[in-house]
Amino acid sequence: MTDTARADGAEQAGQAGAAADTERAEDAERAGGTGRGGRAGRPGRQFHGGRIAYAVLIVFTTGSLFPLVWTAIAASRTNTRLAQTPPPFWFGGNLLKNLEIAWTDANMGVALLNTTIVAGSVAAGTVLFSTLAGFAFAKLRFRLKNTLLLLVIGTMMVPPQLSVVPLYMLIAELSWTDQLQSVILPTLVSAFGVFFMRQYLTEALPNELVEAARVDGASSLRVVWHIVFPAARPAMAVLGMLTFVMAWNDFFWPILALTQNGNPTVQVALTGLGRGHIPDQSVIMAGALLGTLPLLITFVVFGKQIVGGIMQGAVKG
């Protein structure tokens, strides 16, 4: 009887344990369902946050594009309509006419060609020389390296207006006035570019890689061509883009070294538009639109490569 009672008690205990396990499983399932429901609600919140983010991006994009759109609208109107209140907020029918006047009066074909040559040469020279100097300051050992780097950075603190008079005297002495080399050569390298490339190569280029190339007998030129340039390609793309835009929009030194009737850049050529007792603002806007379109086309064509280079550098960093 005792054995039978023990067996019955064990059986009842097992059933009770099974029931308890079943109840715990049901509770866990209910809890899991609530958790899934809670997690299911999270994508809704994320989607709501995504909509807010898209709304903010749309607002900022609209604000950024408004000056360009307004330039196109003003270029398609007449000067009389632009002087009226309220100003126009939609396109007119004089865009082609104003573009033709701006192209002829400002000699825009020559100006665009000159600006392309100047901006391309300055960007290429700045990227090349800044990369070489940045590699030297980042990875090579030589005397007074830190002192020279401080001197290079210190030149960024000097206002460019202070160098205008001696630079113009030098250009006049060399008989380079109104020639493109007077705008290209003084800006072939920049202190910002050297510092930028030095900072990038310090982190992106391992010392072991350079030392291994040296051990294998690679010359300095081969190290630069096969190791430094591939490692610095993302930073070179960013520096080239920034330098190209700055050189394209530069006005202060080109207006001193060049003339509107000689070898003008776009910014110099635009100064000859709309002259008269009442400046023709629609023609001026048409000229500004002509000077901006090449930059937009360049970014549309090479924007993916530039952004890809930036992202590649960020991942490598």
Mean residue pLDDT: 80
Query: How many helical stretches?
Result: 13
Task: Please provide the ordered H/E string of secondary-structure elements.
Answer: HHHHHHHHHHHHH
Helix/strand class: mainly alpha
Low-confidence stretches: 33-41
Tell how many strands the DSSP assignment holds: 0
How far is it from the N-terminal to the C-terminal residue, by CA? 79 Å
Strand content: under 5%
Looking at the structure, what is the overall shape? globular
Radius of gyration: 33 Å
Q: Helicity range of the residues?
A: over 70%
What is the makeup of the main sheet? none
Report what the structure shows.
The chain starts with a helix and ends with a helix. The protein has helices spanning 2-75, 79-82, 95-105, 108-139, 145-154, 164-173, 181-184, 191-204, 207-215, 220-249, 252-257, 266-270, 281-316. With 317 residues, it is mostly helical. α3 packs across α13, α4 (108-139) crosses α10 (220-249) and α8 (191-204) packs across α10 (220-249). The longest helix is centred in the first third of the chain and has 74 residues, at 2-75.
